[in-house]
Amino acid sequence: MNFSFYDIIHILLVFVQLLLIIVLLFKGRHIISNRLIAFFLFAQILYSFDEFCLRNSNFSYIDFPYLAYIALPFFTVWGPSMYLYIKSEITTDFRFKAKYVIHYLPLILLSIYFVFNFHFYSIEEKRELLVSKEILSNVYKKIFAAFVGFQVFIYNVISIVSIEKFAKTNTLKTRKFLSKIKWNKFIIYGYFIVCLCNNLVVYIFVYTKIKNIFLYIYISSLLFLIYFSIILGKALLSSHFGEVFKKPKSPSLSQDEYSNLNIQLEQHMNTQKPFLQFGLTLSELASELNIKERLLSQFINSHYNATFQDYVNVFRIEEAKKLIEQSKDSGKTILEIVYESGFNSKSAFNFAFKKHTQTTPTQYKKGLR
């Protein structure tokens, strides 16, 4: 049996993905997001296995016909598993609920179909079914390929919308948390791009008669290899896949009190602007809101996943950004803006500005021009 370049790519893909699964489970086999992406990788490995068997059918399906149609149902879990992985990363205390099984309904139905219509038959009967293509004709293969491609596309779009919405509505995060979100964006955007390239190649291969299509198939497979290799490198060199961002303990407030405090705090910060006071303390803010200091601290930690100082600084930075925009007309210097936005030193201002905007005040001002 001779290995083609395409076979070698898929062998490397299997090696990289197997190693990645081992790293993920070693770093946190009890972390639900790690298990979800490990299952996703397992389904990807089955695709490489199926491709290898198809290209070497005399060695595989003729001699070992029971290998056929084992991997095929798992192609339908690529999109759902990636989506649930992203969901688990942006949802505090994520749990795999019974309702999520609906995402794997195609896997369940296809598995049942192949069990009763193929796997229960004898070896000789399996060979006959494979030769006759009675179980899965070329027409149904095209329909299945289109379904999987469309399903992955839809799930990827939903995942991208979810993580972008989460990133926009949760600005009060630690640097480590923001780094994790940035990495997850790479995972979903990278997968979206390589899937688009692969689906385009599959469409051309199945529905057209363009020659030299195998060059594009090789390139598509190489993109997957590069993508998974980068993730493997990240998994080996960083602690991302071994961390769990736990939700701080909720304040001892009822649901109504919790919601009312959220509204009251937001209104107070936006109308009274206490953050403009130099050295505003938690005790002073709690006193203005007529609430216990401990409860206010727990609420900010729980609701915003931020310290009191980070919470206050976000309002100060937003105020500073407005003043910087207005400085084109007012002529205010950066130092004047520092004090007018509630900071008591330029160094503290620069540090907070860089932390929350990923740029410096000077660069931000130049960007406005």
Describe the structure.
The protein is mostly helical and 369 residues long. It folds into 2 domains: 5-242, Rhopdopsin 7-helix transmembrane proteins, CATH 1.20.1070; 255-368, Homeodomain-like (Arc Repressor Mutant, subunit A, Orthogonal Bundle). 71% of the residues lie in helices and 0% in strands. It has 15 helices and no strands. The chain has helices at 5-28, 32-55, 78-90, 105-119, 123-132, 138-169, 175-207, 213-237, 255-271, 282-289, 293-304, 308-330, 334-340, 346-357, 361-368. The N and C termini lie far apart (64 Å).
Summarize the model shown.
This protein has helices at residues 5-28, 32-55, 78-90, 105-119, 123-132, 138-169, 175-207, 213-237, 255-271, 282-289, 293-304, 308-330, 334-340, 346-357, 361-368.
Task: Characterize the overall form.
Answer: elongated
Question: How many strands in all?
Answer: 0
Whole-number count of domains: 2
Helical segment count: 15
CATH classification class of the largest domain: Mainly Alpha
Rg, rounded, reads 27 Å
Helices and strands in order:
Elements: H1 5-28, H2 32-55, H3 78-90, H4 105-119, H5 123-132, H6 138-169, H7 175-207, H8 213-237, H9 255-271, H10 282-289, H11 293-304, H12 308-330, H13 334-340, H14 346-357, H15 361-368
Helix pairs in contact: 1-2, 1-8, 2-3, 3-6, 6-7, 7-8, 12-14
